[in-house]
Model the fold of this input.
Amino acid sequence: MSLEFVATLSASNELQSKRVVTACESEMLRKTPSVSDSVSRRNKNFAQTHQQLIETAVRLISEDGVEALSVAALARAMKMNRSTMYYHFENREALLAAVKIWSSEQLSKGFNDQAPRRTRIDHISRFVLQNPDVIKLFIDDFISIGDIRERYPLWDKLVRSMRRTLKANFPGETVDAEVYCVLILTGAFIGPRVFKNSVRPDEGIERIVERFRKEQQRMLRHDALLAP
Done:
C-alpha cells in the first residue's frame, strides 16, 4: 500500500509534455491528407527528439548534479543548435519539469498490477538509489514552503483514503493519517539514500533494496495494510 501511495502521488504531479499544433496546421491537416501524413511524421520526430533530450538531461544530472543542468549544457551534449532547443524547452525550469515528468513515469512502472508486489517494491527503492540527483528534485518539492496540494493535487484524496483504511484496521486507535502519509513518503524517497550514504555505504544497491523490501513488508503487515 505504501509504495502504491507514492506512485499515485507522483503520477498526480505529471504534466502533459506535448507539442501544440497551430490552428493553421490543423486546418491544413483537415484539408490535405498528404500534409496530414507529413505533420504526423514531423510530430513523431519531434517526440523522439524530445525523449532523447530528456534522457540526456537525466544523464547529465547523474554525472554533474542538478545545479549543472541548463538548456545550453544540454544543447552542447546533444550537439544541437541552442535555438532548436527552445522549441522543446523555453527555459531551464521547463527542462526540469520535463525531467520530473520522466521520473514520475519511471516510478509508475513499479506499479504494474501484473508484476509481483516484491518486484514493484524493489523497483522504487532501486530507482531512488540509482538516481539520487533526480530524486532530489522530488525531495526539494516536498520540503519547499507552500501548499503541497498545489504540487500534488491528489494529496487530500490520498490522505482520506489512508484515514479510512487505518480507521477500519484500528477502530480503537486514533491514527494521524496526514503524519502517516508524510512518514511513508519520506521513508520511500529519502530512506534508501540515507541508508546508502550514512548507515551502510559499503553495501551494494541490491542488498539495500532487499533489506528495505523485507522491512517495508513487515511494517505493512503490522499495520494490516498488506495481507500476510
